[in-house]
Amino acid sequence: MLDSGTRPDWPPYNIEKVDENDYRISMAIAGFSQDEVELTQHGPELVVVGQKADDQSGRQLLHQGIAYRSFRQTFKLADHMKIKAAKLENGLLSIDIVREIPEELKPRRISIGVGVGDTPTAATQITQDTDRARKAA
Fold first, then answer.
1. Are 48 and 97 spatial neighbours (Cβ–Cβ below 8 Å)?
2. Higher pLDDT, 34 or 131
3. Residue among 100, 99, 42, 97 nearest 72 (CA)
4. How far is Cα 86 from Cα 62, in angstroms, rounded to an integer?
5. In a 3-state reduction of DSSP, which class is residue 124?
6. Which one-letter DSSP state was computed for residue 117?
7. What does pTM read for this prediction?
8. Distances in Å between the alpha carbon of 100 and those of 82, 84, 103?
9. How big is the chain by its Cα radius of gyration, in Å?
10. How are beta strands 71-76 and 3-4 bridged, if at all?
11. Strands, DSSP E only, in 7-115?
């Protein structure tokens, strides 16, 4: 269903199948706000971009173990996949995806007639005519 593009190790993410037609991508993007993350879907591609704003606080870090680097992650979606919703909560970006197959592409059951060119109503008519002939005889 999904194929990740650039830097598959950053940010870390999970892809899960919620049910038959619903999927979820969860990305760990601690330290990013909603304003610093952008999602766009271009046809079969979902692009997630995180652009960290410059730190204007004037802090002097003695050790920086938390990576606040910007990222761009691309996912190739399968046919008929659409983004349903996205939310950022507690440093986890959740993107809900749904597979919507058009009615004309879904499998459908086709009834079988009782002869070449016959329809069920034609078969019923023949049976009724035969019954009338028997009663007349």
1. no
2. 34
3. 42
4. 35
5. helix
6. T
7. 0.67
8. 7, 10, 9
9. 29
10. antiparallel
11. 13-19, 22-28, 37-42, 45-50, 71-76, 81-89, 92-99
